[in-house]
Design a protein that fits this description.
The chain contains eight helices and six strands, in the order βαβααβαβαβαβαα. By secondary structure, the protein is an alpha/beta fold.
């Protein structure tokens, strides 16, 4: 991680769970971290868990709902103007809504999942890519995907969540090709954990009873590993 010391990482959905663990880990590793979240006060509270005052000063909290393009544009403009631009982006923000695909009147819930898990990821990547390309940065984009983006679990309450994560799997490869076609060396990685003990674990999964779950820090450690690989390593899936 030495080559990233002092460089800027943007983490979406940084207010809790996996996003909070990633934000803290990157800050402790020496990066300047911008945590994007709707609950911005919870990102600010993460500073108390950082190792020293110098590290705490490297964590910035910016209010952003990634389902809203205007919020994304405003957040990345703040990063550009205040701290120079993005070197690493971690697309972590994601939601699930407990409803079946065929339930009446559920359009809003289904659209919320797509707008956050798919469109939010695409728009944040677009803005980060433009920042990296303009500054000739060999940056890194990391998507927090899911095992549900490779195999559809038999959990009815997940409904469109799995489809949104399959989209992330396809988008990762599409972005890799586009980054190459643009003549950049920007890397893209998709990390697909199984169940993680966070707020997104919905009631349908809890009904299954006790089963092994990862901790948020396990995913943060995977991000550190991926970002810490040398430039010659183009890691696609973990």
């Amino acid at each position: 991680m030495d080559r990233w010391a002092g460089k800027v990482a943007v983490v979406t959905g940084a207010s809790s769970g996996i996003g909070a663990a990633i934000a803290k880990s990157l800050a402790n590793a020496g990066m300047v971290v911008v945590g994007l979240a709707r609950r911005v006060e919870r990102v600010e509270a993460l500073r108390d868990d950082l190792k020293d005052e110098a590290t705490r000063k490297r964590l910035h909290a910016v209010k952003c709902d990634v389902s809203k393009e205007e919020d994304i544009l405003k957040a990345f403009r703040w990063v550009e103007e205040k701290i120079g631009g993005v070197d690493v982006l971690v697309n972590n923000a994601g939601i699930g809504r407990e409803t079946s695909l065929v339930a009446p009147g559920n359009t809003t819930m289904l659209r919320e999942v797509i707008d956050t898990n798919v469109m939010g990821l695409v728009m944040c990547t677009r803005e980060a890519f433009q920042s990296m390309k303009k500054r000739s940065v060999d940056g890194h984009i990391v998507h927090i995907n899911s095992i549900a983006g490779h195999n559809v679990p038999n959990i009815p309450g997940l409904n469109i969540y799995s489809a949104s994560k399959f989209a992330v799997t396809a988008l990762t490869e599409t972005m890799r090709r586009e980054f190459s076609a643009e003549g950049t060396k920007i890397k893209v990685t998709s990390i697909s954990p199984g169940a993680v003990d966070t707020e997104i674990i919905i009631d349908e999964m809890k009904k299954l009873g006790k089963f092994p779950m990862l901790e948020a820090q396990d995913i943060a450690d995977a991000v550190l590993y991926a970002v810490g690989t040398p430039p010659r390593v183009q890691s696609i899936l973990i």
